[in-house]
Every structure is written in C-alpha cells, then in structure tokens.
Amino acid sequence: MKFTKSPNYIYFAFIWHGFFLALTHSMLDLNTVFPALITTLTESKVIFGALYSVMLGVPLMFNVIFSHYLKKKEYKKKYLLLGIYIRSSAFLGMSIFTYYLSETNPMLTIYSFFFFVFLFSISAGFAGLSYSDIIAKSLSSEKRVRLYTIKQFFGSSAAFLGGLVIARIFSIGIDYPLNYTISLVIGAVGLAIASLGFIILPESPSIISESKETLTGFIKRIPSILRKDSSFKLFIIVENLAGFSIMILPFYMLYAKERFNIDDSFIGYYLIVLTVGTIFSNIVWGFLAKRLNAKAIVRFCITLGGLNPLLAIYLGTTSPEYFAVIFFILGFMISGRKIGFEPYLLDIIPKTERVEYLGIRGSLNILIVILPLIGALIINLFGFNVTFVVVTVAMFSAVYLLSKISEKQLEDFC
Fold first, then answer.
1. Does 411 score more than 70 pLDDT?
2. Which of 165, 209, 263, 346 has the smallest CB count inside 10 Å?
3. What's the whole-model pTM score?
4. Which of 115, 108, 122, 123 is nearest to 93 (CA)?
C-alpha cells in the first residue's frame, strides 16, 4: 500500500514532529529540569519516585486496552493528534499551578502534578501505538532504522537548542516560579507545533482483524501468545530489565545536587551536556545502523546503561564538572533506546498483529511502572551507591538474555 505523497514527505512529517517534540521535552527534561522542579516543592524521594512511576507506567498499564481498541481502526492518525493535544494541555496546566500556587501551596501543586502527569502519560499510550503503527506501515525495516536515526539527529539538535534556552532561563536571574512557568509554556506551544507535520500526512489503511474477540478474551490469550513466540517473550523480559536504567535516570540529578550541593544553574549545563552526547551518539548509531542492525544498537545501549551507574559512583567523588560525563553518556543511552528498541521490536513481531503485540509489550513492561518508586525506597534505605550497583547487575542480565533471542526472517512491511 502506497502513500499518495512521496517518501520524502513521510520523512519530513516525522522529523518535523521529532524536532519540536525534543524541544518540548527539553523544557521539562525528565533527567534535569523536572527533578529540580520537584525538589523545590518537596524533599520526599518517595513522592518523587511515585510521580515518575505514574509518568512511565500509566501509558504501559493501559496499552492492552488501547491496542484492543485501535486494532479495529483502519486509520489511526486522529488518535495520534488527539494524544499530542492532550499532552500539550497537561504542560499548560502544570505551568498554571506552578506559577500561581507553587510558593503558597507547594503540596497542592504536587498533587496537581499527579493529575497532569497522569493525563500526559495516558495520552502517550494511544498516541504512541498510533505513531508506531503509522511508521511501520509506511516504511520498510531498513528505512525505519534510517528514519529513527535521522529523526534522532534533528531531535538531538532541537534538544541542544532547548538546553540553551533552559540555561538562559535559569542563568539570567528570572525568579522562581516564573522560570519554570516559562519553560512549561514553551513546552505546551512546542507540542502544538509538533503536530502540524501530521495534520496533512496521508495515511494508508492498516490491516485490521475481522475477529470479534472481546477485550477479556484477548487478555486471556496473551499467555498463549507468549508461549508461542519465544523471541517476543524474551524481548519483554529484556526490556523490563533494561527499565532499571530508566529508573535511575532522574536520580542522577538528585545525586549530583546532594553530593556537590549545586544550585539550579547546573540544570542548563547538565542538559546541554546531555544533548551534546545525544547529538554525538547519532554518529555512532548511524554507523551501527548501516553495518549491523537494530539489535546491535539495543545491546550497546543496554551495556552503557550497566556501566554508567558504576561510573557515577566514581565521579561522585570528584567534582560537579566531571560528573557531567554521566549526562553525556545518558545522551547516548536515551537516543539509543529510541533508535534501537522499537525498530528491533517491529522487526520481530508479525505485521498482521502489530498493534496487539505493541499493546502487550507495553502493558507487560510492569517493572517500569514500579521501578522509580522502588528506586526511591532503595535509595532511602541503602543510599545511592547500592542502588547504582543493583541497576548494573540488572542491565548486564538483560545483555545476556538479549543474546538468547533467536533471529526471525523479517516480514515485508504492509
């Protein structure tokens, strides 16, 4: 099935969205800006971890329901756009509460964040499934990896620009909470602009199942799907273990603030270093994509995720400037996950059941739902160093299991 527009336009639409989405995410970067904002409102690491559990886990918990609904829809673009607009509204809501209530009633602001983060995350569920299906039916496996690599380069450039904006906001003396409010408003506007590339993107119909299966029946069938498809089952286990690296990401900023007693001026500095790492990593990922495959990128990414916590323990004994290396490596990891994991999954799942498999994958990423909260509890009980070692063990276990996934003959894209 062909689009009426050229493949170049398909690339343009996704790259446009990726650019402004990355700029938006810089305004509330989950590894620098958001941790700093939350720690100004509360010192509780448990609340901090709970917010991240909602942010990371909610879209996954509902993915089976969303996928069951979307698999019956030939066209999914409108659900993608709806998700983008809801996320933009969530940014706007957080900016309003931050500006008007963060100083006079910080706990009410925190409670509002739970609502807006839930709204932000649940909309990401059906938007993400729609996004993946549109990419998969638009481009072949090789072109998908190329698109993710190019998109990541432009997204990294936008994130670098966003880092400069954040550094400027937090270095020119804009008072709290106006500094965070400005960044959140920019994020809301950026998401709306990001959607423009998809509005006129023509979409070919998906292959839809004629099955009248109920949601309950589909859920009951999941164990048999996992038994039948051992590669998919192992991928689920690997991604759950790799989630330990996601668990620890926001805590690096907290660790630096506690270890070095740094102020908010380092937020922009670390964010810029992170985005420089992301941009530089595209050279590496592009090299691997041409010569190897998505699985190699996943392996490299997980390995970095296992080594970085050990490096953080060492650099925590040096200076905040040297600790920036941790954020440089985070740039590699974050871009590697985006370039590697999803293209690899799209390679190993059947095209006729793509949306269902994506939904199962999301909802079975159960560790990601609770890991940020578990991470906060482990840090409270045993400290950062023990938590970092636990992450390293989990990541190297994931590398081992990844090697056990058998290669399948790639199916033609639809």
1. no
2. 263
3. 0.68
4. 115
